[in-house]
Every structure is written in C-alpha cells, then in structure tokens.
C-alpha cells in the first residue's frame, strides 16, 4: 500500500496539459479580444466564462458516461484520446483568428471539447490509486498542474515578448498537450483496459472479454433496479438512489462537502478574478504588480501541494481541510487593514499554503464516498459545484462592488465564503480512509 509515484507522475501529465492550456488561455485571450475586436470589459468577461458554463453542463454528464464506457483502452482513455488532440489543434488556431466570428467559433469549440475530457483525465487518478493514498496522489497531480501553469507563465511569457501575436506561445501549448497525451498512452493503462500481451495469449483476451461482459451486465442490472424502484421511492430516496443508495450519514456528508466546495471556490474565484483590480484601485499599484503578487499565492500552493496530501493522509482529510480554511481566513483578515505591499504579498504566500491543504484533500474526500464504478460520476459532482462557484462568485462580488463602489470588500467576501465552507465541513463525517485501508497502510 505504497503510492506509485512514477505512475501518478505520468497521470499528472493530463492535468499538466489542462492547466497549461487554461493558464495561457486566461492570460492572453482577454487581451486579444480587446486589442483585435475592441470588445467591452463586460463582453470579455462573459466570453471568459464560457469554459465554466460548459464545465457545469457537460463535465458531470461526461463523468457518468465515462463510467459506462467499456473499451479495450478502459473507461477514461477513449475520451482523452479523442478530446485532447482536438483541443491541442484548436488551441493553436486561437491566436490566428482575426475575425470575431472565427475567434468565437474556435473558442466555443475549444471550450466544448475541453469539457469532454477533463472529468475523465481527473478520474484516472482515483481509478488506479488505492483509496487511502489518494490525498498523496492528488498532491502529485496538482504539483504537475502547477508546473503546467509555471511553464505557461515563464516560457509562454518569454515567447510573447518575441512574438506579440502569441502564436508561438499557443503553439508551445499545443506541442506540450500532444506530448502529454503520448506520455499517458505509453505509461498509463487503466485497470479496466485490455492487458498487454493479449496478442500472444488468447486466454488474456478471453478473460478480459468475460470480465467486461460482467461489468456491463452489473451496471445494467443496477440501472434497471434503480429504475424499477424509483416509481415508489420518495424524492429523498430517489436522491439517495442516484448516489448509489448511500447511507443517510454518507449522503449528508456528501451534500455538506459539496456545498463547502462551492463556498471555498467562491472565495478563491473572487480573489483570482478581481485581485488585480483590487491592487490598482485600493493599493494604487500597476496591474502587472498586482498580478505578480498573486503569483506568489500560486507558487506556494504548488510548493505545498505534495506536503498537503501527505498531511491529509497522516492526520485526516477533514481535519486538514478545516486547518486550511481557518488558516486562509486568518491570513486574509489582516489584509482588510494593511496596505503594505510586502506584508500583503507575504500573507498571500501563506494563504497559498493553506489553500493547498483545502484543495488537495477535497476531491479524494468526494470520490471516497463513491463505489468503484461511479468514480467518474462523483468527479463530475465535484466539478459541478466548483464550476458553479466559478460562475456565480465573480458575478456576485461584481454586483456588490457596483452597489458599494468599494473594492476593499473583496477580502470580506472571500473570508465570509471560507467561513461558510468551514461551517459546512463541521457536518462532514465521512470521506476519510477506512480503518481497513489504514491497517493495510500500516502493515
């Protein structure tokens, strides 16, 4: 029961590709929309939420569909094998569009296809990782994602200096996305995939086909049973059936952790969206200086991603998340009264450490409640609530700011969201490593 860091590292290439693409996308698409098409800030902001709307609509559905996908490559890889190269191709065309219609067609297509393979690529980790090791594994996955963001900012930023059209930066992103796909195809084989060596041994193929038929029949039996029972179930019992008849305690824990996820991502997304404007209007800094300050938050998050997973495995995921939420709140409350750039940067760096404690351990808690054949579905639920926050939080704080004309309320908004998440987590009693799994690790 030791984490296979090598395998987890290669799984992380999927998240690296996704994070690199989004970092380049969020950094340069707004400027292209403004410079090339003279769009207003409101319209640009609306365009930049397309990915969140698509993620909210399609990722949960794709998670369910990937659970029901049975192929020689497994549950997830068919979605990744089709979606990732299409995204890579569309990504290279984004900076080459000089008409608004062409740009919008490429952006919509890119965001749609991204929403089709992100849930499967995230679900790969819990598919191949034992339950008690998922916090550690998620730390490695997020470390790879952080490296993707750093590549986007450092290498992409340097390329943009020499090529202001951003064609080189986006081409770099395309190449790395394709390399990441190759790494997944070579080094990762899902447990449900056709094993290697089947061409030399027909018995391997026969055994795999027999196991595949059993899995399909079992899933069909569960769906039929749920359909037959749904006619006389109450609304609450139907909800339980949709979550594979979780016990009342497990269902309550799942609901509260999903709302906690919504609240803490609301606090995070508000800061991510508006901090640069906060720096300009409250701290009287340049937009570039504000962005550099927020980079410290990302760097400390990346540096602490793996330790946060290890801590979650040692002292418990729930306790680690509660510590992270309390630390985030305590780190950000002083920002309400401090305008020193140095002190504020230090507090943001501390916040990145505590954010790692929260973010790294949240997905493992959700999928811990899922049975083996529903990991993709529960991954989709996780992203439904996180994307809901990504859509609603910027709109909510934007409305508050417009009513009060005060950017100083940004950290009041975020700290309130973190506090609500903390309260929700107090009601979560499930999602930890089971006693049997803990004994297996110790032995």
Short characterization:
By secondary structure, this protein is mainly α. It is 79% helix and 0% strand. It has 17 helices and no strands.
The fraction of residues assigned to DSSP E strands is under 5%
Give the overall average pLDDT.
82
- What name does the CATH topology of the largest domain carry? Growth Hormone, Chain: A
Query: Which word captures the global form?
Result: globular
Q: Cα distance, first to last residue?
A: 8 Å
CATH architecture of the largest domain: Up-down Bundle
What structural category characterises the helix and strand content? mainly alpha
Number of helices: 17
Determine the fraction of residues in helical runs and give it as a percent range.
Answer: over 70%
Strand tally is 0
Description:
This protein is an all-alpha fold. It has three domains: 1-192, MFS general substrate transporter like domains (Growth Hormone, Chain: A, Up-down Bundle); 202-232; 234-443, Growth Hormone, Chain: A. The protein has 17 helices and no strands. 45% of the residues are buried. Mean pLDDT is 82; it is low at 438-443.
Strand and helix layout:
Layout: H1 5-37, H2 41-47, H3 50-67, H4 77-93, H5 100-128, H6 134-162, H7 167-187, H8 202-230, H9 235-242, H10 248-281, H11 287-303, H12 305-315, H13 317-332, H14 341-368, H15 375-404, H16 410-425, H17 435-442
Helix pairs in contact: 1-5, 1-6, 1-7, 3-5, 3-15, 4-5, 4-7, 5-15, 6-7, 6-11, 6-12, 6-14, 10-11, 10-15, 10-16, 11-14, 12-13, 12-14, 13-14, 13-16
